[in-house]
Design brief:
heterodimer; A: alpha/beta; Rossmann fold; 8 helices; B: alpha/beta; QueA-like; 2 domains; 19 strands
């Protein structure tokens, strides 16, 4: 049985790509899942279909980068599915596309990237992790990127936000050591998603991983996550190999 | 005692009056010193209920009202209706609400509801059914609802002002505010001293409605849930001679209700109608961290299960003299 069976799961960025795949697969594994997205028309249809099959899935419309959205999100999600055991920060933005050099990046655009990719996860973790702490159980997952480690031209805002997100995840883990709450960041690798097409329109989809497969790898890793792994940064494809 | 009129920016900067349960001796401390007043093996039990935006401004059949939600069971909410106006007017001076009969239609921005029944003991206590459900209901509730607050406060509270550092499910109508003086730093220092921390969820209800009949009946039935891990933590603490210290009266109500029902603590959901006062025999809880409140309110009766009226009166006088602040954003006392 899944460790997340009947447990509350909250996923941001759940309308598309990896977030959506995690939303559907975790609901099918018996978790009580809330997905967050700015636009939820399509996500709500997916949630309805899952509910019709007897699974528990809900769609909440919110901008995870908006400071005023955080407490409503923490409250509404836990009203729907109970205490959150697994929090996944999958929402992120590249900033303006086509991607361009830092010298051409408007400062306001960089701020927007940090709001969604870095400050949003900090605020939502802060609103959720205290409950995990006093229950002595919970996992916070930050979806990272290869661009957090390597400095690619034109990926400056996104890469810096993900590098900072990784560091934040390590710091949460250091502060939460011994409490039963884990924090981990996961590099999903290159996937065939809308975001990837926005960044690199000319790449061959056949060379890219499918989000459904990466979600499966991530869930397999989370199922056997040990407290000792808290604070680590893993690559999904390597992590799930037995 | 003077009421604290606004949340502190640093919550642990509140003052803490330690009252010895047996002797009545008092000591003045800062709330950040709480970990130093606990011993290895003690267990701190917190109420992890988040606070709802339970105050809804809207109308009933076109007449302005405020509805304060109390609790939900199978999609039906119990709620208290107030007349026009807001928290800025003391509840007892608010105009009466219109008389509402079953079937009356209520609307609050994107939320709409029908009155299902008028409940005892007051015509202002209703059961209502909202037309929205699940994610739509909760999204709209968080959009139109505001925290319940009282006239001694100086401004409009935001949702984050009324949450504990460890809040999870939004079950509380008023904040379980004894926990306001705890933060990650103080909980971490307590843990380093060998103090364990456990949680339960208790739907702390309204403390005042301005309706004499209804106020006399408070607290009404409140739901709670005690996790198996907390029952185990209590047993573990007991086995090694530790004390069970409740953070807030809601924790006392949940633990003592369950112990009375079953003779021992058991995990699971429940409902509490327990009234705790002088002479009540505490079966689980040894100590209480609680806010400061006036001797006239029911909270003071509950404290008398922990210490004698004479000791509490003396401590209260000392706190007034020392300038302690009362109510949810005020100072705290530790009865141990």
């Amino acid at each position: 049985m899944s460790r997340f069976s009947q447990r509350g799961v909250l996923i941001t960025g759940a309308s598309r790509g990896l977030g959506r795949a995690l939303f559907e697969q975790l609901a099918r594994s018996g978790a009580r899942v809330v997905g967050v997205a700015r636009r939820t028309d399509d996500l709500e249809r997916a949630a309805q279909a899952l509910r019709a099959e007897g699974f528990e899935a809900h769609a909440l419309a919110a901008d995870a980068g908006d400071i005023d959205a955080i407490y409503p999100l923490a409250g509404a999600s836990q009203a729907l599915v109970g205490p959150i055991e697994l929090l996944v920060h999958a929402a992120s933005t590249l900033g303006p596309t086509p991607l361009g050099p830092l010298l051409d990046l408007p400062c306001e655009e960089f701020s927007r990237v940090l709001q969604l990719n870095l400050l949003g996860p900090f605020r939502l973790t802060r609103a959720i992790v205290g409950g995990m702490l006093v229950r002595g159980s919970g996992i916070v997952v930050s979806i990272s990127s290869d661009a957090a480690v390597n400095a690619y031209p034109h990926w400056g805002a996104y890469g810096a936000s993900k590098a900072a997100l990784d560091h934040l995840s390590r710091t949460w883990a250091a502060e939460l050591r011994g409490t039963g709450v884990s924090a981990i960041s996961i590099d999903p690798g290159e996937m065939d998603t809308d975001m990837h097409r926005d960044a690199l329109p000319d790449s061959d989809p056949a060379t890219l991983a499918r989000p459904v497969d990466v979600a499966r790898q991530i869930i397999a890793g989370l199922e056997r996550l040990t407290p000792g792994e808290s604070g680590s940064r893993v690559i999904a494809a390597d992590w799930s190999a037995p | 005692m003077i009421a604290a009129s606004w949340p502190r920016s640093q919550r642990t900067s509140a003052r803490l009056l330690r009252i010895d349960r047996a002797s009545g001796a008092i000591e003045h401390h800062g709330a950040d010193e709480l970990p130093l007043l606990l011993r290895r093996g003690d267990l701190l039990v917190v109420n992890d209920a988040a606070t709802l935006p339970a105050s809804l401004a809207g109308s009933a059949e076109g007449v302005p009202i405020e509805l304060r939600l109390m609790d939900e069971e199978a999609g039906v909410w119990r709620a208290v209706v107030f007349g026009a106006g807001s928290w800025r007017t003391p509840t007892e001076r608010r105009p009466p609400p219109p008389a509402l009969a079953p079937g009356a239609r209520l609307s609050f921005g994107g939320l709409s509801a029908r009155v299902e029944a008028v409940l005892a003991p007051s015509a202002r206590l209703l059961s209502v059914r909202f037309e929205q459900s699940d994610a739509t209901f909760w999204t709209e509730l968080y959009r139109v609802g505001k925290p319940v607050q009282y006239s001694y406060l100086s401004g409009d509270l935001r949702l984050w002002h009324v949450q504990n550092a460890y809040a999870a499910r939004p079950w509380a109508v008023e904040a379980p505010s004894a926990g306001f003086v705890l933060n990650a730093d103080s909980l971490g220092r307590a843990r380093q001293r060998g103090v364990e921390i456990a949680a339960l969820t208790h739907a702390a209800g309204l403390s005042s409605t301005g309706d004499e009949t209804l106020d006399a009946a408070l607290p009404l039935r409140e739901r709670f849930e005690i996790p198996a891990s907390t029952v185990a933590a209590v047993a573990h603490a007991r086995a090694r001679g530790g004390r069970i210290i409740a953070v807030g009266t809601s924790v006392v109500r949940a633990l003592e209700t369950r112990a009375l029902e079953h003779g021992s603590l058991r995990p699971g959901p429940g409902r509490s109608e327990l009234r705790i006062g002088p002479g009540f025999e505490l079966r689980v809880v040894d100590g209480l961290l609680s806010g400061m409140h006036d001797p006239t309110v029911s909270h003071y009766a509950l404290l008398q299960a922990f210490a004698s009226r004479a000791h509490l009166d003396a401590a209260h006088s000392a706190a007034v003299k020392a300038g302690y602040l009362e109510h949810e954003f005020g100072d705290v006392c530790l009865l141990l």
